[in-house]
Amino acid sequence: MAMKDLFDTSHLYGSNAPFVEELYERYLADPASVSDEWRVQFDGWQAAGNGKDVAHTPVIAAFETYARSGPARTAPAPVAGGDAKSLKVLQYIRAHRVMGARESQLDPLKRMERDPVPELQLSFYGLGDADMDREFSPGSWQGTSGSMKLRDIVAAVKKTYCGTVGVEYMYIASTEQKRWLQKRFEGTLSTPTLSAEEKRFILERITCSETLERYLHTRYVGQKRFSGEGGESMIPAMDVLIDEAGAQGAKEIVIGMAHRGRLNVLVNSLGKVPADLFSEFEGKKKSDPTSSGDVKYHQGFSSDIQTPGGTVHLTLAFNPSHLEIVNPVVEGSVRARQHRRGDHTGDQVLPLLIHGDAAFAGQGVVMETMALSQTRGYKTGGTVHIIINNQIGFTTSDTRDARSSLYCTDVAKMIEAPVFHVNGDDPEAVVMVAKIALDYRMKFHKDVVIDLVCFRRLGHNEQDEPFVTQPLMYKKIAQHPGTRKLYAEKLEKEGVIAAGFADELVTSIRAALDAGKPINAKIRYGLKPALAVDWAPYIGVDWRHPAKTELSIAELKALAKRLTDLPANFKVHPTVERMLAGRRDMGEGKIPLDWGMAENLAYASLVDEGHPVRLSGQDCGRGTFAHRHAVLHDQNREKWDSGTYVPLQNIRDGQANFVVIDSLLSEEAVLGFEYGYSTAQPFELVIWEAQFGDFVNGAQVVIDQFIASGEAKWQRMCGLTLFLPHGYEGQGPEHSSARLERFLQLCAEHNIQVCVPTTAAQFFHMIRRQTIRPMRKPLIVMTPKSLLRKKEAASPLEDFSNAGFQVIIPESAKLQAKKVRRVVFCSGKVYYDIAAERDKRAIDDIAIVRIEQLYPFPHEEFAAQIAMYPNAKSVVWAQEEPGNQGAWHSIQHYLHRHMRPEQNLAYAGRDSSASPAVGYLALHAEQQKALVEAALSPETSTKQAAA
């Protein structure tokens, strides 16, 4: 039913919309549960929708708009027909389902006095004491099957939605999911039922958490650790999540979290031996000599824990100080592990992300990662999120400065993830909520959020004085006895523990810490997890390790045929048909192979040899420049109706997997995801392509904190490949440069590879080398734009069957070496411009050499090129980029190292500039002509080297 139809119907209009929604949901469950009048109305809706459930979104939106409408709000007008007060009772119940969390008792500090929410008061609906003993139908309320007295309805509703648990879920479109959540919360009145043994276990885990923090605080005074004290209930929540996940068949859990409470999770949840942690505090731990190391609260860890369903492998991802950036990395790692296990639903490998309240609300990568959650190429079967909400963020205790939304969790509503707010001082409620969250995720394979409202006992770090900026808040915290003490007193009053038991727990845990012994009895030490990746073959492999990348002509022709065959009755666009016809000729060796054909041929050869390939990015299937066409589209069928064909998935029976994903419009989250994927799947060629090279700017944190430095900091290897379109064609400052200089600045200790291939065959061999060679280092490729179709950049079929990737391409013209007076070195597209002008002028004493691999720099090959021209007094570096950009500043010292004393080094390129490129085509052409002239002109001198 359309929104206009809904609101044009008088008795469905305005403030009655929530009631109609409630009735309609009852009708969907049981048509006989509503009056004849309403059944006729709803039958009409169903007929109009061909028997399908009518969208509830307009009704829900109407209610939420009404609820926020301000001081002018009035009680809803009664619906025509029926008992007006009965209808108001249903509206009262629904109001609590939608916004009962606003009156929940969530703050352990009880700092703020809150005004009552009008819609959550009986008086708002014209109900009062006179109605309390009258019986009403509670509608779809899950706690009863019959009528209830109003006082019992009020008590049940308040206990369920306004106690120490606040639930937000009514924005979810799925009736099934809403009913499931109502059954779990309303059916129990949000009240956990725990045995005495379970309660003692919770106390023990909270005690472990608090005791560790206080032990570290006294033993290592003033050292940073980002204490989790005040949020101790996180530890039993972690326990129940891990146990329940194991009981439901999970084999692995990958955890991502920032600093707060990380050391506590390491020791108490993952079982890091306290003695090892203490050694790190004392600076005694010996690091790998190849490792630069990282601080304690960035470190990752893995372990195995015994659960009711068997052993579960836990992995805590390494994380830099960029907080939420670990989210997509974890998701990518999870997806790779699921792929390795054949876990297509996400039941065996679970992502668990732990956030801070301010970071969850404030950092855009949270939204970007959530946007990935249900997409085909990135979903992981749902993520459990825990927010350690200490109500203060970094130093901002006023939510007016921390966010613009009511709750820090509001971004989760974007993907209809339910949110469970819970008071950290009620550990039993925390455990209950954790179990429901896990069950929801495993049943519906969607994200779910636990907002653990707690406090921060100490400052942002242990050197910070919080009273300076939050005096009143910290007066409250100073008076708070701690969650452990409150819970121990509660259990003692209940008779669950004897007097003195809680103190004995503290003493025994401190004794274990003094001895440096583990304090989580469930950890199984020394296990080798099933399906664990063996990285040994990739350790210490030099970049010069040989790799046979060439193929025989027969193999190339056979693969080319498979790439250009189409299924019967599959009609492609005429432009694509012409492209395929050209590729058929290329495959037969009739014409040189262009870039797109060379790339597809490389992937075809890899999957044919058993190497999986995963390629993702914006518009990857077709290619930004319509050059790849890895996914073909039938012009007579829709995509979802057998309307696409991927030749690379049809090379042969039993081939390795090929996946190409048109990603959502994200760089940071998608690149983080692919990095995480590649760190868990070294056998697969993983590629991320930027739509334009400069788009990678949006993912710079992933490059700086993970790709470039991850191995040095954490010994975390990966073979991720980045394709970044780069080249100066007059497209202005935003679409010219992939910021080559930034990658070269990050190069050290052979951490990454940076290549600028200039021919189709070079691209083919480079891709194959990255996969076949047993070295896993990130590969950064400055891919071309205009060269994709440039005839001079195409390669004959024979070039794919002879020697592999050339790190330097020597001068190709037949020059007399002794006659050469100048050697011009360059990379990328500019070579063709300089070479064309040289040929036009018939210059025969200038050699042009292409450096195809800028890092690791090919010293031997470069020295050989210098030696080849004994009379060359001038060496020139030519580039398209401005002098302060591109390779010039990074490459100078390499060039000087191998030059002879009598040689001088000159620069031919654009002047230094604040912008990557000019925006006017005429000015671009003028600059391009000038740099080509400088490369060839006899006047080019050492003076230009300072540009």
TrEMBL record:
Family annotation (InterPro entries): 2-oxogl_dehyd_N (IPR032106), 2oxoglutarate_DH_E1 (IPR011603), DH_E1 (IPR001017), KGD_C_sf (IPR042179), ODO-1/KGD_C (IPR031717), THDP-binding (IPR029061), Transketolase-like_Pyr-bd (IPR005475)
GO molecular function: oxoglutarate dehydrogenase (succinyl-transferring) activity; thiamine pyrophosphate binding
Keywords attached to this entry: Glycolysis, Oxidoreductase, Thiamine pyrophosphate
GO biological process, one term: tricarboxylic acid cycle
Entry keyword Oxidoreductase: yes
Signal peptide: none
Cofactor(s) listed: thiamine diphosphate
Gene3D superfamilies, per database record: 3.40.50.12470, 3.40.50.970, Multifunctional 2-oxoglutarate metabolism enzyme, C-terminal domain, TPP helical domain
Domain Transketolase-like pyrimidine-binding residue range list: 593-790
SMART domains documented for this protein: Transket_pyr
Record-linked PANTHER family: 2-OXOADIPATE DEHYDROGENASE COMPLEX COMPONENT E1, 2-OXOGLUTARATE DEHYDROGENASE
Function: E1 component of the 2-oxoglutarate dehydrogenase (OGDH) complex which catalyzes the decarboxylation of 2-oxoglutarate, the first step in the conversion of 2-oxoglutarate to succinyl-CoA and CO(2).
Annotated family: Belongs to the alpha-ketoglutarate dehydrogenase family.
Name of this protein: 2-oxoglutarate dehydrogenase E1 component
Organism: Usitatibacter palustris
Taxonomic lineage of the native organism: Bacteria, Pseudomonadati, Pseudomonadota, Betaproteobacteria, Nitrosomonadales
Gene it is expressed from: sucA
